[in-house]
Amino acid sequence: MSDSIFTIEHKDGAARAGTLRTAHGVIPTPIFMPVGTVGSVKAIAPDDLAAVGAPIILGNTYHLYLRPGDELVARRGGLHEFASWPGSILTDSGGFQVFSLSSLRKIREEGVEFRSHLDGSKHLFTPEKVLQIQRNLNSDIMMVLDECVPYGADYDYTAKSLALTTRWAQRARAAYPAGTAHNLLFGITQGGFHKDLRKRSIEELCGMDFDGFAIGGLSVGEPKAQMYDLLYHTAPLLPGHKPRYLMGVGTPLDIANGINAGVDMFDCVLPTRNARNGTLYTSVGKINIRRKQFAEDDGPLDPNCNCYTCRTFSRAYLRHLYASQELLSFRLNSLHNLTYFLDLARNARQAIIEGRYTDFLAKITALYPDEAAKAAEGA
Amino acid sequence: MSDSIFTIEHKDGAARAGTLRTAHGVIPTPIFMPVGTVGSVKAIAPDDLAAVGAPIILGNTYHLYLRPGDELVARRGGLHEFASWPGSILTDSGGFQVFSLSSLRKIREEGVEFRSHLDGSKHLFTPEKVLQIQRNLNSDIMMVLDECVPYGADYDYTAKSLALTTRWAQRARAAYPAGTAHNLLFGITQGGFHKDLRKRSIEELCGMDFDGFAIGGLSVGEPKAQMYDLLYHTAPLLPGHKPRYLMGVGTPLDIANGINAGVDMFDCVLPTRNARNGTLYTSVGKINIRRKQFAEDDGPLDPNCNCYTCRTFSRAYLRHLYASQELLSFRLNSLHNLTYFLDLARNARQAIIEGRYTDFLAKITALYPDEAAKAAEGA
């Protein structure tokens, strides 16, 4: 089953243009997945997602488990039915939110115990439990439970953690053998910022028959140069014929480099969170719409973008909406930023197909010179 | 000019089905006008307004004058261009917000001085000034400056205030003689809760050649029965051949009664504000979507509504969005409530045309028994 879900149609260097098939559709890769934390991409409706051309969104297992509850969602027929979203859904394992949002978390062999950030109630996530939750949500792509090692963790801690992540992955695969159902299951490689541990994690995980493999534990506070170093070290070690997913990443430059390193899938709250902060991505660089310079700017936000926001409104109006903190501002800005990130993936794919990915990466790099300079530090 | 802008096609008792023509379109009356405070109906985009079938929205002169500034809007080509709204726009006079939002207001013969609620800066609104602002906004229907007398004002204060409102109306008409431009100008009748003063205000105002007449100063905190008493007293005194506008009103029952009394136009923040509070209007009565009873309710919000929200989502999902305070909740709820209010106006019009308005009013009354009981108190 796992082999037929993903085909690579073109390669340009390490970059891959492929197609991923799930129970809910066909996903051209590379792809960016908008984050729908609690079952809605913030400020964005399913018809908006169709308009920006998103074939797959992400849901957060931790959030949906706590509210409205995965069993309630299951009784509604799953997350697609509940949220009226006909496309594909990937759910994370819940692990990352346990480590970043909840309090009093205790990691044991059995799993991770934590208190809800909503009401302080106590819960236990095990490898088996988070699969049961994701099966209740009926996500198209489920992720195994892992420990996301914090930046700065020493070698010994990281090595022990990665061994636990491997044992959790084995339990997950045992609880949900390949071919059990239509829900795909991806493994998550860890290893912190130690290259040999990254390699070890991949060797241990990739012997298991997962449908795809993620790189976890990057973009957790490390310097950009270090992230890129690890990314370019790790991605080529992953099995070539399966989809590769760089979790929680990132900026347009990060994504362009991820694709360059051979990654196929990305997710990040950046386009929607930044939209709500007035930071907008355009074909001529990043702008903050709150700036006074836009007060009388009658041009579109991005003349090269075809989203509803750019087709319809001026920068002057978008600035006014943002300055007034109108709810419409959050939707229009999110619509645009998501279009930018989806366009980035679409354009990257086309560049790979046409064998000009190096040029494409150079153009993205030129758009974000400050970030590119940081990425190049120590290189 | 003013006579040709409005035609009455059917009457059923005092209720009227008509057509109002502005520089930006044809408006079937009775009509409900969504409130677009600072140039956007909260959480709602122009394509949403088209979807709910709103031919006209309201803009607040006070808000737009302060931010982004009417002159900035004029340099953008007016409010229609600025907000990308192709339909009609009515702007209020700014008076009501001066009295309800600003501090340190001083009413003088010349006009009203006030401090901005945004930054405390000092401003003066005169009858001439608020017309200049509305001309800068290029609204299709402009309102004259008036003093909205607070509930409980005594006879002498109300009489003096109404005389000032009349003098301000004279100055407005003199500054902007009939036929000057395509922007229509409506007068606002006042008179508080004294029937003879209501009559006097109408006699004084309606001698002036305004394009339409508003009833101001209702729904300002008075008991519902008293509002209805004044409404049914006042509406029939207004000129029969011109559009009648009941400002800032109201609930579905208020609107149905306003139509019954012969009013043609209504505006209120109720559908959008209540939407953001989870209070939703349906064909079987008002509900609060936050209630636990909807947690597993897979039915549509209103089976008799054809809006995007009702066509697409379950009550269970809408409850979850509201409970999570997701931004999408505000848009979906607002879309529905606006559809309800526009449908109310459309259905009322059809009932008038078919000569069954009494039945229609009885049905609306039955939907809101508590409110209807209050309206009947002392009747």
UniProtKB/TrEMBL annotation, chains A, B:
Gene Ontology biological-process entries: tRNA queuosine(34) biosynthetic process
EC top class named in words? transferase
Every copy of the tRNA-guanine(15) transglycosylase-like domain together lies at: 14-368
Please give one Gene Ontology molecular function term for this protein: metal ion binding
Q: Where is this region: RNA binding?
A: 248-254, 272-276
Give the pathway annotation.
Answer: tRNA modification; tRNA-queuosine biosynthesis
Q: Which cofactor does it need?
A: Zn(2+)
Q: How is the cofactor bound?
A: Binds 1 zinc ion per subunit.
Q: What is its EC number?
A: 2.4.2.29
In this chain, Zn(2+) is annotated as bound at 305, 307, 310, 336
Binding residues annotated for substrate, in chain numbering: 92-96, 146, 190, 217
Where is the catalytic site?
Answer: 92, 267
The family this protein is said to belong to: Belongs to the queuine tRNA-ribosyltransferase family.
Functionally, this protein is described as follows: Catalyzes the base-exchange of a guanine (G) residue with the queuine precursor 7-aminomethyl-7-deazaguanine (PreQ1) at position 34 (anticodon wobble position) in tRNAs with GU(N) anticodons (tRNA-Asp, -Asn, -His and -Tyr). Catalysis occurs through a double-displacement mechanism. The nucleophile active site attacks the C1' of nucleotide 34 to detach the guanine base from the RNA, forming a covalent enzyme-RNA intermediate. The proton acceptor active site deprotonates the incoming PreQ1, allowing a nucleophilic attack on the C1' of the ribose to form the product.
The name this protein carries in UniProt is Queuine tRNA-ribosyltransferase
